[in-house]
Amino acid sequence: MQNLQSIKQRFGIIGRSELLERSLGIAARVANTDLSVLITGESGVGKEVFSKIIHNLSQRKHNGFIAINCGAIPEGTINSELFGHDKGAFTGATADRKGYFETVNGGTIFLDEIGEMPLDTQAYLLRILESGEYIKVGSSKVLKTDVRIVAATNVNLLDKIKAGKFREDLYYRLNTIHIAVPALKERREDINLLFRKFASDFAEKYRSDVVRLDDDASRVFYNYSWPGNIRELRNLAEQVSVMAESRSVDAEMLRVIAPQLFKHNLPMLQNAKNKDGGIADMNEREILYKLLFDMKNDLAYVKNLISDLIRDNNLKVEDVEQLRQFGLPAPKNSDFRSARNTVNLPQTDFSASSQVNDFSIPEDNNEEPTFIIHDTAEDDFHPAEEFEENLSIEDMERSFIIKALKKHRGKRKEAALELGISERTLYRKIKQYEIQ
């Protein structure tokens, strides 16, 4: 197996991420075999580069290589494109035509977006993987081919199988070796390296000086989610190289050129609808966001409550600055003008048979506060209990689910709507937390 550094240099791969190097290592190890390979990853991560690495490091490197986008070929012609056709097989077939499996015999075929392949074509492909045999469209003659298949997808094929849009037997045939190419957000340490490489290439192309990011601009790039991955980063590097007024790019200049970099939307959808019209599933992270938002609202309520109590009861506090520190407005009372005014309580014996029901603070700060003491029954007092705050996310999640079920009298559909999750997720959580 070749050294990873030499592979990077040969194929122009930039990065030192551990996930990237792991994927490169798998590609290099399986290249010299005839095993079929399934490459998965988001759009724009460079899956085709991995297929070329596998081909060029294999015994087939001197034979043909072709990359085919299964989603770009119309359903009615894809069988003819892949397997060929005989003259007169269909309207417009005026001559025999060789398919890719015949022209690239002995080489490698890269099938991108394999999840978009029609079901009947999947059956043809499965036969090639099992026996190397295929039949041209409109022919009855069985042909043989020796082609290595490398497939790639940016969707979850298991979901396609459940939806009846992808053959399960074909999936396991293709997935002999699985290579997961990491998204750019999973290898953030490589973002700066990639930008510098792209900026250098564009500077040479446009015969200009290389643009550079300052520290603030680099942080903006680092914190962005990069949904378009390397393809988006390359396009943005070209945009900055052309549009930047200065060769040193700061965050404010980026805000003008690419304002989308400053949008940080939380990955949470409230009552999001899926294709079937139901509520889309929320994962644990999204449920946690919901809990945090609810806690924030509760905290704001407590702040307002404390502020109202201080203002309406003419209370004095130890330090006005502490109120501002916690976001509480200082009441418009002259007693708050001093930084260290406290309420002085008289030395009164509060026995179990007495209870403080009311007290008043006179307008004159020099007088002691007057307390009105009412005798009351002993059983009016309850022993104090100390509760330790539970910060367990699982316990909080379980508590929210129980409250929602009680509120809706055990109706799980309505409880799921209240929680912002699907019924399926709610069933799973009820089973997980053993909620009766």
Task: Tell me what you see in this structure.
This protein is an alpha/beta fold. The chain has helices at residues 4-11, 18-30, 47-56, 78-83, 100-103, 119-131, 157-162, 168-174, 191-206, 215-223, 229-243, 251-257, 284-312, 320-325, 393-407, 412-419, 423-432; strands at 37-40, 65-69, 84-85, 97-98, 108-112, 133-135, 142-144, 148-153, 177-180, 212-213, 248-249, 354-360, 370-375. The strands form five sheets. It has a five-stranded parallel beta sheet with strand order 2-5-8-1-9, covered by helices on one side. A two-stranded antiparallel ribbon has the order 3-4. A two-stranded antiparallel ribbon has the order 6-7.
Write out key terms for the chains shown.
436 residues; alpha/beta; five-stranded parallel β-sheet; two-stranded antiparallel ribbon; 17 helices; 12% strand; extended
Q: Give the spatial strand order of the biggest sheet.
A: 2-5-8-1-9
Order of helices and strands: HHEHEHEEHEHEEEHHEHEHHEHHHEEHHH
- Count of helix runs: 17
Radius of gyration: 34 Å
Number of strands: 13
Average predicted local confidence, pLDDT: 81
**How can the largest sheet be summarized?**
5 strands, parallel
Strand content: 5-15%
Helix fraction bin: 40-55%
- Going by helix content, strand content and strand pairing, the class is alpha/beta
> Uncertain regions: pLDDT < 50 for 5+ in a row?
266-273, 275-281, 333-362, 370-379
N→C terminal distance: 57 Å
The rough form would be described as: extended
